[in-house]
Amino acid sequence: MSRIAEIQRKTKETDIRVAFGLDGTGKSEISTGIGFFDHMLEGFSRHGFFDLNCQVKGDLHVDGHHTVEDTGIVLGQAITKALGDKRGICRYGSFILPMDETLVLCAVDLCGRPYLNFDAVFPVERVGELDTQLVREFFYAVSYSAGMNLHIKLLDGINAHHMIEAMFKAFAKALDQAVSMDSRISDVLSTKGSL
Asked: How many helices (H) and strands (E) does the chain have?
């Protein structure tokens, strides 16, 4: 079973192409126009073993909001499409990731019901060219377009670069668990019979 997806979304604000593979090796080609955001998506791909090609042209002359949010929307759509009917997946994943002084918890449920619980305050307004307010917007967009419960909690941290990077990597590890196949699951992991 090939669990890959390609999504293109074009609006007056952004033009986005994403190719996404759940069962990859962590290979990525990322270009969003925001260097630090590229670095975060590369980390997500590498640490989740997802193959990700993400090409974004956005209205960065306005600010980074549309670029980051719309990338989250398209990535969430690609995750859903790649998962297909969700037969055999573990459904749940969680990870606590350390990065120097920072510690982040991430938990995922691929239940089909969107919800984001994001508990973090950043000490600065920007890291590189990324507005730190947009980190929550990205994860909100992913969770809603993918129909997933997503909980991200900053347990400790001082440096905003470390905080954000730990979030993207913890999300990658938790999602990798959730999308993993388990031979004991013949249908979907739900008493309702659907996700």
From this structure: 4, 10
Contacts of 2 (CB under 8 A, 6+ apart): none
Tokens of 37: 């955001």
DSSP assignment letter at 119 = E
**Type and span of the H or E element at 97:** strand 92-99
Residues 6+ apart with CB under 8 A from 164: 36, 40, 122, 127, 130, 132, 135
Percent of the chain at pLDDT > 70 equals 99
Q: 54 vs 22, 171, 191, CA distance in Å?
A: 14, 17, 36
Place of tokens 């992991």: 189
How confident is the model over 7-46, as pLDDT tens digits?
Answer: 999 999 999 999 999 999 999 999 999 999 999 999 999 9
**Tens-digit pLDDT profile for residues 86-106:** 999 999 999 999 999 999 999
Nearest to 189 by CA among 60, 90, 98: 90
